[in-house]
Design goal:
The complex is a heterodimer of chains A (465) and B (251). Chain A is α+β, with helices and mostly antiparallel strands and 465 residues long. Chain A is 25% helix and 24% strand. Chain A has a domain at 202-429: Vanillyl-alcohol Oxidase, Chain A, domain 3 (3-Layer(aba) Sandwich). Chain B has one domain (10-246): Rossmann fold. Chains A and B meet through β2, α11 and α14 of A and α7 of B. The structure holds flavin-adenine dinucleotide and NADP nicotinamide-adenine-dinucleotide phosphate. Chain A: Its EC number is 1.-.-.-.
Chain lengths: 465, 251
């Protein structure tokens, strides 16, 4: 171990990947347990710099730094203040939490739900940190109503390349560069986050089926505004007339009076429940077109044609995959990529073409997710913008996949859409500036704030961020 | 950086005029590769090769490198790594020699061994250390089926490739866990200028086929790649053939 780390700060040199388990690289992973140790870690990054890492749920190489330092932030996991009345120094209205960046949304739910508060935005997994949520400016099923995560961040503390800790208020350039900035402006140490009040820990959910893509888009367009949370699962292996067939699940937090009498006594309990982990070694090629197609078929048929007001647990509604720890291993050694893009309203033709191409090619993709985004937030590299977003998983060992996704990128770029960096592991760097018009500002701010390039990641090297 | 499919953005070729290496470079440029260094003995052919890759959109540069001068490797190759990360090194230099002549000309025979084996030991170690410091990258080494079991008809070349192959495997093990991926490529008879004028062996293949196999090997992070793939089985049978039989085989 090199001698430039602080005495006894946990550190080890290990192979690191994102959730998709592609493109591993080796880094010195240090785990600061205090702000002082974080400062030391940044000062001691060395020639190949450093990058913050949360729970490693970004699919690609965003939280990796080959040959350099990776700051595992999960050791900074204290919740400092929970302000339910709006009286304290968090600066917000009632319902704000001030916590370290390494706290997971899972932990926040455990602590806050019994108090009647919920995180403002949750992705498809609870196992992300607050730092990762801001770094990728994540979105949830409520984006059309609530925007991205950063919309609910009142302020944050950022450890910058010079070793200083700055308080960054919303509405400032540094805040907008950091929200969605993929850890490249510095290490977020803590944040004050505005919460959402709930009466119960259950969801009331409406489920309906759509027979094809047009049917789906029509339903989402017509009635999304009635729901706080909305998402559709598409079977991308269905072809011909049923191309784009899907199941819509939409809902809101259940009010107290929607609960049966027994449940009303403990309306705010949070018991997600877990299944055994996926085995560590799984043979390649298990997930072919046939097996995945069969799974999707069964799943579509089992969904109710239409069902309203069903009560579901938060974990069932938001985080179905969290029930199986390490489910990413089912893709075997080569791992998988997630492709997620957004295309603006009015460009539905491009979306149709892409969906058609994916199903025409028969990519063995489990349920893909389609959702409507609302207004964009100001983060310079923040992904969401008004339009349709589609996300799908594909095994990385599929021959020709690289070229195929490049072609899809061209469609996305031509339609003024963009690809999500938190999911990316393969975008052609030349397309980035077109997709993220504020990239120039981002680079300029970085050059100014971090002239020696202390903060680097495999993602930033690959895409020249 | 390599992408999710193992495709490099920057490539260093040792043996910059190798037809197999250039076919590989063309293929990778068509996907992601932008920066290419062609290291080799200065010649118009080396410059022409770089020009050809530039026409495909790559930023291709040449540098003087001689496998027979291991003393210079550290400095020459160090300069390349100092300019930026190298995602993939393709060790492609090699000479076939002329077995019949070289048996009577030990100095010429030694040149085959020094180019293919000791030259590669030196260049391989220099690159391995630089890749290790990066924490990522692939070292792809063109070995040969000829090294799998030395044959009467070309054991000088064969033994040099056997040494190279064993060296590369060991290096791969040494680099395990460092983020560096080492891949041995064992082509059979490839139609290139190295084999021009020779009688074709069974299962002869092309530089393009080797390039495709390399791209797939990168995606799978393979440790050994045979080209064509069926050679793995053929060679495993030949390896176990009794000596008296093997000696008389027309291979
Ligand atoms: C099953 C699943 C479902 C998902 N669903 C969604 C979804 O619906 N919507 C969505 O938006 N995303 C989704 N994601 C992606 C995930 O929300 C983001 O990648 C998120 O950033 C992961 O957080 P993390 O703590 O794991 O961060 P990591 O993956 O470790 O890091 C992600 C980025 O954040 C930066 N970062 C992390 N911590 C800090 C810090 N303290 N300071 C500065 N930068 C930091 C890293 O440098 C990196 O660039 C999903 C992922 C999975 C696995
Ligand atoms: N062709 C086959 O059938 C076959 C089969 C199995 C394995 N291989 C191996 O694959 C590799 C590439 O072969 P190829 O078919 O592409 O042949 P090639 O076109 O003849 O390439 C050989 C390369 O080696 C270079 N070289 C020779 N001596 C050198 C030295 N002292 N210093 C630097 N470079 C030197 C040559 O450069 P100059 O231009 O300076 O000569 C040339 O670039 C070789 O290692 C070969 O052994 C080939």
């Amino acid at each position: 171990m090199s001698g430039d780390t602080v005495a006894d700060m946990p550190a080890e040199t290990v192979s690191v990947t994102g959730w998709g388990r592609t493109a591993p690289s080796v880094a010195r992973v240090v785990r600061p347990r205090s702000y002082e140790e974080a400062v030391e870690a940044v000062r001691g990054c060395g020639r190949r710099g450093g990058i913050a890492r949360g729970l490693g749920r970004a699919y690609g190489d965003a939280a990796q730094n080959a040959g350099g330092a990776v700051l595992d932030m999960t050791g900074l996991d204290r919740i400092h203040i929970i302000d339910t009345t709006g009286s304290s120094s968090t600066g917000g209205a009632a319902g704000t939490v001030m916590c370290d960046a390494g706290v997971s949304l899972h932990r926040l739910m455990e602590v806050l739900l019994p108090l009647g508060w919920f995180v403002p935005v949750t992705p498809g997994t609870r196992y992300v940190t607050v730092g990762g949520a801001i770094g990728a400016d994540i979105h949830g099923k409520n984006h059309h109503v609530s925007g991205a995560f950063s919309r609910h961040v009142l302020s944050l503390e950022l450890l910058t390349a010079d070793g200083q800790i700055r308080t960054v208020e919303r509405g400032t350039p540094l805040f907008d560069a950091t929200a969605g900035g993929m850890g490249l402006t510095g290490v977020i140490l803590s944040a004050a986050v505005q919460l959402h009040p709930v009466e119960t820990s259950l969801m009331t959910v409406d489920t309906e089926r759509a027979m094809d893509l047009d049917d789906l888009m029509a339903r989402l367009t017509a009635t999304d505004h009635r729901y706080r949370y909305s998402v559709a699962w598409i079977d991308l292996l269905a072809r011909g007339a049923s191309t784009g067939r899907s199941v819509l699940t939409r809902g809101d937090h259940a009010p107290l009076d929607a609960l049966p009498a027994r449940a009303r006594r403990e309306p705010l309990t949070f018991r997600p429940g877990r299944l055994p982990a996926a085995p560590a070694h799984i043979p390649e090629g298990l997930l072919g077109r046939r097996t995945v197609g069969l799974f999707n078929e069964l799943w579509y048929r089992k969904a109710p044609r239409s069902l309203t007001g069903e009560l579901q647990k938060i974990s069932t509604f938001f985080h179905p995959l969290d029930g199986v720890p390490h489910w990413n291993r089912v893709y075997g050694r080569s791992g998988f990529v997630q492709y997620q893009f957004v295309i603006g309203y009015g460009k539905e033709d491009a979306l149709r073409r892409i969906v058609q191409r994916i199903s025409g090619r028969g990519c063995p993709s489990f349920l893909a997710v389609l959702k409507r985004f609302g207004d964009a937030d100001p983060g310079w590299l923040s992904f969401p913008m008004p339009g349709w977003t589609l996300a799908l998983d594909i095994p990385a060992n599929l021959p020709g996949l690289g070229g195929f996704l490049d072609e899809l990128d061209e469609e996305v770029a031509a339609a003024d859409g963009r690809v999500y960096l938190a999911k990316d592991a393969r975008l052609r760097p030349e397309l980035l500036a077109g997709m993220y018009p504020r990239l120039g500002d981002f680079r300029a701010l970085r050059a100014d704030l971090d002239p020696r390039g202390v903060f680097v990641s495999d993602l930033s090297r690959r895409l020249n961020l | 950086m390599k992408d999710a499919f193992g495709t490099p953005q920057s490539l260093l070729v040792l043996g910059g005029t190798s037809e197999i290496a250039l076919a590989t470079a063309r293929r990778l440029i068509a996907r992601r590769t932008r920066t290419v260094w062609l290291a080799g003995r200065p010649s118009p052919a080396l410059e022409a090769a770089a020009e050809q890759l530039r026409a495909l959109g790559a930023d291709a540069r040449t540098l003087a490198f001689d496998a027979l001068e291991p003393g210079s490797h550290e400095e020459v190759l160090g300069k390349v790594f100092a300019e930026g990360d190298i995602d993939m090194v393709l060790l492609a230099f090699g000479i076939l020699g002329d077995q019949a002549r070289d048996e009577g000309d030990p100095v010429a025979a030694v040149r085959v061994a020094q180019t293919n084996y000791t030259g590669a030991v030196s260049a391989g170690l220099v690159c391995a250390r630089a890749l290790q410091a990066q924490g990522h990258g692939s070292l792809v080494v063109l070995s040969s089926v000829a090294g799998e079991r030395a044959r009467r008809s070309n054991f000088i070349y064969g033994s040099s490739k056997a040494g190279l192959d064993a060296f590369t495997q060991g290096l791969g093990d040494a680099l395990h866990g460092t983020g560096v991926h080492v891949m041995v490529v064992r082509p059979g008879f490839v139609r290139s200028k190295m084999t021009a004028g020779l009688e074709e062996a069974p299962m002869a293949t092309t530089p393009e086929a080797v390039a495709t196999a390399i791209e797939t090997g990168l995606r799978r992070r393979s440790e050994v790649v045979w080209v064509p793939g069926a050679l793995r089985l053929v060679m495993s049978a030949l390896r176990h053939a009794p000596r008296a039989v093997f000696r008389r085989l027309p291979v």
